[in-house]
Amino acid sequence: MSLLTGKTVVVSGVGAGLGHQVAAAVVRDGGNAVLGARTEANLAKSAAEIDPDGTHTAYRSTDITDERQCVALAELGVERFGRIDAVVQVAAWDSYFGGLEEADFTTWQSVIDVNLLGSLRMTRACLPALKAAGGSVVFIGTQSAVAAPTQVSQAAYAASKGALTSAMYSLARELGPHRIRVNTVLPGWMWGPPVQAFVQFTAQTEKVPESDVLKRLTSRMALPDLATDGDVADAAVFLASDRARAITGQSLLVNAGELMR
Hints:
Helix content: 40-55%
Largest sheet: 7 strands, parallel
Structural class: alpha/beta
Distance between the termini: 33 Å
Strand content: 15-25%
Order of helices and strands: EHEHEHEHEHEEHHEHE
């Protein structure tokens, strides 16, 4: 039996990268995927690629800063598949760069509204269905929340995801009596569209081969290859499945051994 046979998983933030890979892994492993993201065209494209006949997917345009839209996505899962067994929070604002000195705290507040509060909104929207049969909440965090990278400065992103990881501990305790597990996956450098763009941009800026930039990233890792979007998706699907039934309140680094804790 596949990991998610008969299970329904809500996946927020489905675009070209990690969200798509998580949704694809859910369907691959026998589950139903309820896709949410702000751009409906991205949702339609992802659903068509991973589930051409539409049997195991449903989607709705969803902005996780809007509580009503979060509730509507959760309701879609129940209406279409009769239940929600897990929610994987991928949606995030990760494109604001910089540290403290140049910080625009209005933008920081928006980053926190998406990455922390948006994830909590989506989780709360799914709670009635999760309480009905128990289940799993999986947050996608970042290694940057526990170890600042040297290549880029994303203080707001790191702080918001660190707050989400801290919230995970309280949620794991609060929701545990309902047999709802809450865990976080912490990716490091993850080969997918954002990192591909970073490698290309850096190579062009420095006028060096892309392979040199990639080697610079992998040189600090125990394994010689970057983790991929698919690797992170597989970790999220494991935590969403019953095979992780005794795991809650944990953070799992998926980073090819760059940071070990």
